Known about the structure:
Layout lengths: L3 E2 H4 L5 E12 L2 E6 L1 E2 L13 E3 L2 E9 L2 E6 L8 E6 L1 H25 L3 E6 L4 E5 L5 H16 L5 E3 L3 H4 L16 E4 L3 E4 L14 E9 L2 E8 H9 L1
Parallel strand pairs: 1-4
Antiparallel strand pairs: 2-3, 2-8, 3-7, 5-6, 5-8, 6-7, 9-10, 10-15, 11-12, 12-13, 14-15
Amino acid sequence: MKTRRLFYEDVYIQEFEAIVLSCEEKDGKYHVILNATAFYPEGGGQPADKGMIDNIPVVDVQYIDGELCHIMESPLEEGAQVVGKIDWNWRFDLMQQHSGEHIVSGMIHEKYGYENVGFHMGEEIITIDLSGMLTWQQVQEIEKKVNYYIWMNQQVNIFYPDERQRKFIPYRSKKELTGEIRLVEFPGADLCACCGLHVTHASQIGLVKILSCKKFRDGVRMEMLSGKRALDYLSG
Length: 236
């Protein structure tokens, strides 16, 4: 990969400078590769970042043929130095949602042994599909435990164990993983393989509100909100 991923170095970078390595027109859009970027591409259940590069809107960000590609309506000149600006409200909201989901899934897995078998981060709500049944009383107990954990403000750990170390680490994963694996740990709540972006301290999630829990296939589908979304819902 040609692009330095600034979002993994500092998740709070909102503006950055970079050099345009290439710009190719494809299907009426321009696929731009930079030497460095703070734009997170869609992955790990998390939507792509939004924002601007030299005041031109970034339509989408994807990994394409092993390269991190910014999809844009207008071209950028190859070799030019540009300034990228992240839509921070969008990014931080997704960080809150994704981090809240980790803690909920981790605590349910710890107490009931259920797996998170499906996860969707929409613009309005988050859904989690779990492999077992839960009563509403059990859901409310989990919600209280999650919010108490958030208020304790644990620092989030992100690390890349080698193959030997992974054999001794009980992390959650939906499938057998190979190659470089990025583990995200909310100490005492969750340890999961994930390439998404998260807050650095649990208190930045603010709060979690579970909206519903209904039978779905062999388990349940849970709807939830974190952070500002949860606050707006409770204040509405």
